[in-house]
Each structure stands twice: as C-alpha cells, then as structure tokens.
C-alpha cells in the first residue's frame, strides 16, 4: 500500500539542501504506485509537485501540497544488431545509467557523465553537455496523465525537444509524470571530443583513439574539477542556461567584448557561455551572505550553509541584472523556482 507521510522535510530531497517542508509526501517505487497516487483523493485535493533527484529546483518556501518523489528503479537492454535499446526507470540516478551503458559498451551518453538528477527528468529538461543532448539518443518514454492516470508512450517527435526544453515544460507542463525512458544507443562508438576541454585532456593523457570509457572518465574529471559535490555543498549544478542569441546581437557583443566565448547554434544563432559572462562581471567565487558562486565555475550557485531559497534567488537576480547591464544579454534560470 502506498505510504503517504505528513509534514515531511524536503531538505534531503533537494541538492541545494534548502530546509523547507511539504504537507504530504509519497515515494513512488513502481508504475502501480504511480497509478495509485494518481487515483487517490489526496491528489485531487492538493497542489502537486513531482520530484526526481531534486537537482534542478530551488525552494523559496514550504510546499503547501503533495510531493511525489519518483524512485522507480531498474535498467534493461535489448540488442538489435548494432543498435541497443536501453530502458531505465524514472528513479534511476542518471550517472548510474551512464555507468551501466559504458560498462556494457553501449555508446551515446558517455559525454553526459556526472550530470546530476534522475532518468525521469532527462527528457523534460533535454539535458545536455559537451556537445551531446538527450534528444540525440532518445527513443521513447512511458508517462501517466495526472488527470486520468492513463498510460501514454511518447516518441521523439511527440516531445518537441529544444535547447534545455521539451513539450513537458510547455504545453504538457504539469500534465504527465514520466515512469521510464528508453534510449537508442549503439555498440559502435562514434565519440564526440570536440566540445569543451575533452580533446585537450585526452591529449594530455596521450590517448589518441579514445573509447567511450575514456570519454566518460575525462568528462567526469572535468566536471569534478569545475563543479561542487552536492553532498558536501548545496547546489543544483548550472543555475543558468547558456544564452542563445541572434547573429546580429552577437556581433554587437563581440564588437564590445572581442574575447567573448561562443559556439554555433541552430538556425544561424550563437550560443554564449553563461559562466564566462558571469565571471566577467566579477562573480566567480564570490560569497554573499550564505550563498555565492562556486570558486571554479561562476555558473554554479551554492549554499554555503543554511541559506534560504530567497537568498539564493535574490543573488541570482543580481547576477542577471549585472550581466544584462554589461553585455545586453538576459540570462534565464535553468533551475525551477518554487
């Protein structure tokens, strides 16, 4: 029987380690648990929040309603020639899935090593790093409609993926809960080393013909060097999206700031490095009260101890305003504010 708890602390369930409470809390360990909670009277009477790893949320107050923590486990794979379909429960830790795939020689998500969070959140956010996005390997996902508890399978086109975006953040926001995700991977590696410092690190190690394990290891080392461990200091990884701007706007930014870090983006647009923009405004490693930016990566906001969500949010607003004033570029938060 589904166990629903009252007045539960959410501090263990968000990587920012913000101390807030929820009126009701239920942990989901199977599709049937999910169906049961969706059919319950409680869900019809309360505001609903769905949590995975809690790595993409900033709580600014207690949650007045029901928190559903998705912890559905399990990883399986089916080999179809060179293609491998890997299916994982929505509660699987994302990096555990990456490790499973790398260990079994299934290529495609090695560049996404050490991204925080769970599998269920990956299509919603269209997670990405080092030249690879979730949409590049997405096959389908199983989700349940909150209003009816009906099961639906979403294919690639249904999800309408964009940069850190999907249909689940737009038209279907708050309408479905993902129970599992399937990925189309390959037994033949076509490694991507062209983004960030991957190739440089491979050269430093004398690796001329890298395996997917090599790529995963290098990406993990880069991330560990740049990003704080949420188990030791509260954070949600990258707090802001890398802004994507029109070519004309980019030329204006480049004229004033010739060294601006940038990358090509679809439709002739240009992606700027948000971390670089923030650092140029003097925010890297800064401490403001109980919050601040990480010493090795200005894109990451941290909780130095007992910070409130309001403090972190206010600090992020200061960063947005300063970057806009200096570069004429408006940063968007990647983290969900509650």
Keywords:
338 residues; alpha+beta; Uridine Diphospho-n-acetylenolpyruvylglucosamine Reductase, domain 2; Uridine Diphospho-n-acetylenolpyruvylglucosamine Reductase, domain 3; Uridine Diphospho-n-acetylenolpyruvylglucosamine Reductase, domain 1; 3 domains; four-stranded mixed sheet; 20 strands; globular
Q: What's the CATH C level of the largest domain?
A: Alpha Beta
**Roughly what percent helix?**
25-40%
Mean pLDDT reading: 90
Please tell me the total number of domains: 3
Number of strands: 20
Q: Major β-sheet, in short? A: 5 strands, antiparallel
For the record, give the distance between the C-alpha atoms at the N and C termini, rounded to a whole number: 29 Å
Low-confidence stretches: none
Strand order of the largest sheet: 6-7-12-10-11
Name the CATH architecture of the largest domain. 2-Layer Sandwich
């Amino acid at each position: 029987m589904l166990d629903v708890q009252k007045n539960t602390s959410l501090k263990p369930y968000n990587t920012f380690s913000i101390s807030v409470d929820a009126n009701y809390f239920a942990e989901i360990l199977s599709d049937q648990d999910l169906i049961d909670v969706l059919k319950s009277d409680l869900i019809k009477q309360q505001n609903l929040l769905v949590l995975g790893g809690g790595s993409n949320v900033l709580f600014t107050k207690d949650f007045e309603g029901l928190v559903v923590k998705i912890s559905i486990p399990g990883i399986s794979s089916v080999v179809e020639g060179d293609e491998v379909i890997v299916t994982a429960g929505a509660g699987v830790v994302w990096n555990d899935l990456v490790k499973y795939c790398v260990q079994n020689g299934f290529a495609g998500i090695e560049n996404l090593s050490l991204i925080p969070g769970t599998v269920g959140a990956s299509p919603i956010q269209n997670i990405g790093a080092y030249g690879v996005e979730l949409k590049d390997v997405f096959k389908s996902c199983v989700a349940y409609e909150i209003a009816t508890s009906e099961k639906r399978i979403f294919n690639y086109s249904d999800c309408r993926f964009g940069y850190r975006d999907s249909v689940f953040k737009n038209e279907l926001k708050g309408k479905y809960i993902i129970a599992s995700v399937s990925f189309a991977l390959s037994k033949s590696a076509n490694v991507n080393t062209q983004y960030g410092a991957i190739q440089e690190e491979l050269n430093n190690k004398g690796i001329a013909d890298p395996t997917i394990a090599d790529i995963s290891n290098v990406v993990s080392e880069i991330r560990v060097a740049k990003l704080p461990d949420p188990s030791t200091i509260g954070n949600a990884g990258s707090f802001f999206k890398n802004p994507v701007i029109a070519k004309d706007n980019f030329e204006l930014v480049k004229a004033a700031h010739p060294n601006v870090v940038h990358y090509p983006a679809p439709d002739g647009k240009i992606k700027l490095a948000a971390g670089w923009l923030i650092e140029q405004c003097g925010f890297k490693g800064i401490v403001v009260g109980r919050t601040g930016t990480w010493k090795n990566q200005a894109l990451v906001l941290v909780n130095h101890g007992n910070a409130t969500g309001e403090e972190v949010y206010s600090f992020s607003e200061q960063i947005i305003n300063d970057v806009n004033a200096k570069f004429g570029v408006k940063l968007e938060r990647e983290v969900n504010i509650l």
